[in-house]
Write a structure and sequence with these properties.
The protein is an alpha+beta fold. It is built from eight helices and four strands, in the order αβααβααβααβα. Helices cover 40% and strands 15% of the residues. Bound molecules: ribavirin triphosphate.
Protein backbone atom coordinates (compact mmCIF):
# COMPACT_ATOMS: atom_id res chain seq x y z
CA UNK A 1 0.00 0.00 0.00
CA UNK A 2 2.87 2.43 0.77
CA UNK A 3 4.53 1.60 -2.53
CA UNK A 4 1.26 2.29 -4.30
CA UNK A 5 0.95 5.70 -2.63
CA UNK A 6 4.54 6.60 -3.51
CA UNK A 7 3.92 5.89 -7.19
CA UNK A 8 0.59 7.68 -7.41
CA UNK A 9 0.57 10.79 -9.58
CA UNK A 10 0.53 14.13 -7.75
CA UNK A 11 0.04 17.73 -8.78
CA UNK A 12 0.51 21.12 -7.17
CA UNK A 13 -2.61 23.28 -7.04
CA UNK A 14 -2.69 26.79 -5.57
CA UNK A 15 -5.64 29.08 -5.00
CA UNK A 16 -4.25 32.55 -5.63
CA UNK A 17 -4.95 35.59 -3.40
CA UNK A 18 -8.01 36.60 -5.46
CA UNK A 19 -9.60 33.18 -4.94
CA UNK A 20 -8.92 33.28 -1.20
CA UNK A 21 -10.22 36.85 -0.83
CA UNK A 22 -13.37 36.06 -2.80
CA UNK A 23 -14.23 33.16 -0.52
CA UNK A 24 -13.89 30.46 -3.18
CA UNK A 25 -11.79 27.96 -1.22
CA UNK A 26 -14.52 25.47 -0.37
CA UNK A 27 -16.05 25.71 -3.85
CA UNK A 28 -12.72 24.93 -5.53
CA UNK A 29 -11.60 22.21 -3.10
CA UNK A 30 -14.97 20.57 -3.46
CA UNK A 31 -14.57 20.22 -7.23
CA UNK A 32 -11.32 18.27 -6.78
CA UNK A 33 -12.82 16.22 -3.93
CA UNK A 34 -16.02 15.31 -5.78
CA UNK A 35 -14.05 14.24 -8.83
CA UNK A 36 -12.39 11.63 -6.60
CA UNK A 37 -8.91 13.07 -6.21
CA UNK A 38 -7.20 12.86 -2.84
CA UNK A 39 -5.83 15.80 -0.87
CA UNK A 40 -2.37 14.95 0.49
CA UNK A 41 -1.09 18.39 1.59
CA UNK A 42 -2.62 21.80 2.28
CA UNK A 43 -1.49 25.08 3.85
CA UNK A 44 -2.33 28.77 3.76
CA UNK A 45 0.75 30.94 3.14
CA UNK A 46 1.64 34.47 2.09
CA UNK A 47 4.56 33.89 -0.29
CA UNK A 48 7.34 36.48 -0.39
CA UNK A 49 7.99 38.19 -3.72
CA UNK A 50 11.25 36.26 -3.99
CA UNK A 51 9.34 33.01 -3.51
CA UNK A 52 6.75 34.03 -6.13
CA UNK A 53 9.61 34.70 -8.58
CA UNK A 54 10.94 31.20 -7.90
CA UNK A 55 7.53 29.69 -8.51
CA UNK A 56 7.09 31.56 -11.81
CA UNK A 57 10.77 31.38 -12.91
CA UNK A 58 9.75 29.99 -16.33
CA UNK A 59 7.89 33.23 -17.06
CA UNK A 60 10.65 35.70 -16.12
CA UNK A 61 11.01 37.05 -19.68
CA UNK A 62 7.29 37.77 -19.99
CA UNK A 63 6.06 41.38 -19.71
CA UNK A 64 3.55 40.46 -16.98
CA UNK A 65 6.13 38.63 -14.80
CA UNK A 66 6.65 41.43 -12.27
CA UNK A 67 2.95 42.18 -11.83
CA UNK A 68 2.19 38.48 -11.57
CA UNK A 69 4.77 38.00 -8.79
CA UNK A 70 3.53 41.10 -6.96
CA UNK A 71 0.03 39.70 -7.15
CA UNK A 72 0.91 36.18 -5.98
CA UNK A 73 2.73 37.63 -2.97
CA UNK A 74 -0.02 40.17 -2.17
CA UNK A 75 -1.96 37.93 0.23
CA UNK A 76 -2.70 34.41 1.36
CA UNK A 77 -2.39 31.57 -1.14
CA UNK A 78 -3.88 28.14 -0.44
CA UNK A 79 -1.17 25.67 -1.49
CA UNK A 80 -2.23 22.05 -2.04
CA UNK A 81 -1.05 18.73 -3.37
CA UNK A 82 -3.69 16.50 -4.96
CA UNK A 83 -3.14 12.88 -5.84
CA UNK A 84 -4.80 10.41 -8.22
CA UNK A 85 -4.60 8.76 -11.59
CA UNK A 86 -4.23 11.43 -14.28
CA UNK A 87 -4.50 14.26 -11.73
CA UNK A 88 -2.00 16.55 -13.49
CA UNK A 89 -3.81 16.65 -16.80
CA UNK A 90 -7.33 16.35 -15.41
CA UNK A 91 -6.58 19.00 -12.79
CA UNK A 92 -5.80 21.40 -15.66
CA UNK A 93 -9.09 20.37 -17.25
CA UNK A 94 -11.03 21.15 -14.07
CA UNK A 95 -9.23 24.51 -13.92
CA UNK A 96 -9.90 25.51 -17.56
CA UNK A 97 -7.98 27.69 -20.02
CA UNK A 98 -5.52 30.29 -18.65
CA UNK A 99 -7.65 33.19 -19.92
CA UNK A 100 -11.08 33.02 -18.22
CA UNK A 101 -12.59 34.62 -21.34
CA UNK A 102 -11.66 31.39 -23.13
CA UNK A 103 -12.30 28.86 -20.35
CA UNK A 104 -15.36 26.71 -20.89
CA UNK A 105 -18.35 27.05 -18.58
CA UNK A 106 -18.18 24.19 -16.10
CA UNK A 107 -14.48 24.77 -15.45
CA UNK A 108 -13.25 26.62 -12.35
CA UNK A 109 -12.02 29.66 -14.30
CA UNK A 110 -14.95 29.48 -16.73
CA UNK A 111 -17.45 29.59 -13.89
CA UNK A 112 -15.67 31.83 -11.40
CA UNK A 113 -13.21 34.22 -13.08
CA UNK A 114 -13.21 36.97 -15.71
CA UNK A 115 -9.67 38.23 -16.46
CA UNK A 116 -6.32 36.48 -17.03
CA UNK A 117 -4.47 38.50 -14.39
CA UNK A 118 -6.99 37.35 -11.75
CA UNK A 119 -7.69 33.77 -12.74
CA UNK A 120 -7.91 32.50 -9.12
CA UNK A 121 -6.01 29.22 -9.41
CA UNK A 122 -2.76 27.63 -10.53
CA UNK A 123 -2.13 24.01 -11.49
CA UNK A 124 1.11 22.29 -12.54
CA UNK A 125 1.30 21.82 -16.31
CA UNK A 126 3.25 18.53 -16.44
CA UNK A 127 5.02 15.82 -14.42
CA UNK A 128 8.33 17.72 -14.15
CA UNK A 129 6.72 21.01 -13.09
CA UNK A 130 4.51 19.12 -10.64
CA UNK A 131 7.57 17.58 -8.99
CA UNK A 132 9.44 20.90 -8.88
CA UNK A 133 6.47 22.88 -7.58
CA UNK A 134 5.57 20.33 -4.89
CA UNK A 135 9.14 20.40 -3.57
CA UNK A 136 9.29 24.21 -3.76
CA UNK A 137 6.08 24.67 -1.72
CA UNK A 138 6.17 21.65 0.62
CA UNK A 139 8.62 19.76 2.80
CA UNK A 140 8.42 15.98 2.31
CA UNK A 141 6.97 15.53 5.81
CA UNK A 142 4.06 17.86 4.95
CA UNK A 143 2.77 15.31 2.43
CA UNK A 144 0.40 13.06 4.32
CA UNK A 145 0.19 9.35 3.58
CA UNK A 146 -3.21 7.88 4.30
CA UNK A 147 -5.80 5.68 2.74
CA UNK A 148 -9.08 7.48 2.03
CA UNK A 149 -11.03 4.23 1.81
CA UNK A 150 -10.52 0.54 1.38
CA UNK A 151 -12.27 0.37 -1.98
CA UNK A 152 -10.71 1.22 -5.33
CA UNK A 153 -13.17 3.81 -6.60
CA UNK A 154 -11.56 6.78 -4.82
CA UNK A 155 -7.83 7.43 -4.98
P1 LIG B 1 -0.96 28.69 -14.12
O1 LIG B 1 0.51 28.38 -14.33
O2 LIG B 1 -1.22 29.79 -13.14
O3 LIG B 1 -1.83 27.50 -13.92
O4 LIG B 1 -1.44 29.30 -15.48
P2 LIG B 1 -1.22 28.72 -16.90
O5 LIG B 1 -0.19 27.62 -16.91
O6 LIG B 1 -2.58 28.41 -17.39
O7 LIG B 1 -0.63 29.99 -17.63
P3 LIG B 1 0.88 30.52 -17.78
O8 LIG B 1 1.04 30.90 -19.20
O9 LIG B 1 1.86 29.62 -17.13
O10 LIG B 1 0.77 31.86 -16.96
C1 LIG B 1 0.84 31.85 -15.57
C2 LIG B 1 -0.06 32.90 -15.01
O11 LIG B 1 0.35 34.17 -15.46
C3 LIG B 1 -0.77 35.02 -15.55
N1 LIG B 1 -0.82 35.61 -16.87
N2 LIG B 1 -1.06 36.88 -17.06
N3 LIG B 1 -1.28 38.40 -20.31
C4 LIG B 1 -1.27 38.36 -19.01
O12 LIG B 1 -1.44 39.33 -18.31
C5 LIG B 1 -1.05 37.07 -18.38
N4 LIG B 1 -0.81 35.92 -19.00
C6 LIG B 1 -0.66 34.99 -18.03
C7 LIG B 1 -1.99 34.21 -15.28
O13 LIG B 1 -2.37 34.41 -13.92
C8 LIG B 1 -1.50 32.79 -15.47
O14 LIG B 1 -2.26 31.88 -14.70
Amino acid sequence: QEAHAAEMERTFIAIKPDGVQRGLLAEIISRFERKGFKLVAIKLVVPSKDFAQKHYHDLKERPFFNGLCDFLSSGPVLAMVWEGEGVIKYGRKLIGATDPQKSEPGTIRGDLAVVVGRNIIHGSDGPETAKDEISLWFKPEELVNYSSNSEKWVY
